[in-house]
Amino acid sequence: MIQDARWRGEALDRLGLGPEADDAEIRIAYRHLALRYHPDASGDPGTARRFAKVVKAYKVLTVAGEGSRRDRRLRYRSVEDAGEDLFALGQVVASDPDAGARAQAARALGLSGRTAAYVFLRRALYDKSQEVALEAVRAVALLGSKQAEGEVAALYSRSDASLRRRILDVARGTGESLFRATVEAGCRDSEPSLRVLAASAKSQL
């Protein structure tokens, strides 16, 4: 059971999702990443390895019966009302008083597959709630928003050890190049366990 939970966590990290992801979000993330990394679609033969990891993660998460064991998380009305409208989701990220709604809106922006969503996710990277900021990190990784490199590194630098560890987990799981500056900062971290995790993440970039 513990091994299954570890594999599930690693698979979710690979897809740029958190532990609260439901089946629909897993499918959406898989589709976006499969389109980005498929060797035929990307034109870069180097993406074959990353594509294989995305496929493996999806298979781990879609094992028969997995969906029935996954708890449905709370849905926030403001996010449901926003639907797929980037501006409405951005408004939730910017002004909803509930951190849970802001985090879910950041997740929805990442799952939109539209790089223009970064305009709104940038604000979430500076949110006072660590959960919102972490969802924004996952979202920019899912979108492959290279312009977020500086903001993610800045978030890493100003965060406590717990959030720094979670950011490095996302970097290691996704292997996105936007984490280069963050991982370099992690390699110089004062905490030895974070330096080890950063070195592991560096090998995935």
| Biggest sheet character | none
**DSSP strand content:** under 5%
Distance between the termini: 30 Å
Shape from CA axes? globular
* Total E-strand runs: 0
Average pLDDT taken over every residue: 87
- Helix percent reads over 70%
Question: Count of helical segments?
Answer: 14
Low-confidence stretches: 67-72
Helix-strand sequence: HHHHHHHHHHHHHH
If you had to describe this structure to a student in words, what would you say it looks like?
This protein has 205 residues and is mostly helical. Helices cover 71% and strands 0% of the residues. The chain has 14 helices and no strands. The chain has helices at residues 2-14, 23-37, 39-42, 48-61, 66-69, 77-82, 86-95, 99-111, 118-124, 130-143, 149-158, 161-174, 180-187, 192-204. Helix 1 (2-14) packs across helix 4 (48-61).
Record keyword descriptors for this entry.
71% helix; 14 helices; single chain; 0% strand
Task: Write the SSE topology.
Layout: H1 2-14, H2 23-37, H3 39-42, H4 48-61, H5 66-69, H6 77-82, H7 86-95, H8 99-111, H9 118-124, H10 130-143, H11 149-158, H12 161-174, H13 180-187, H14 192-204
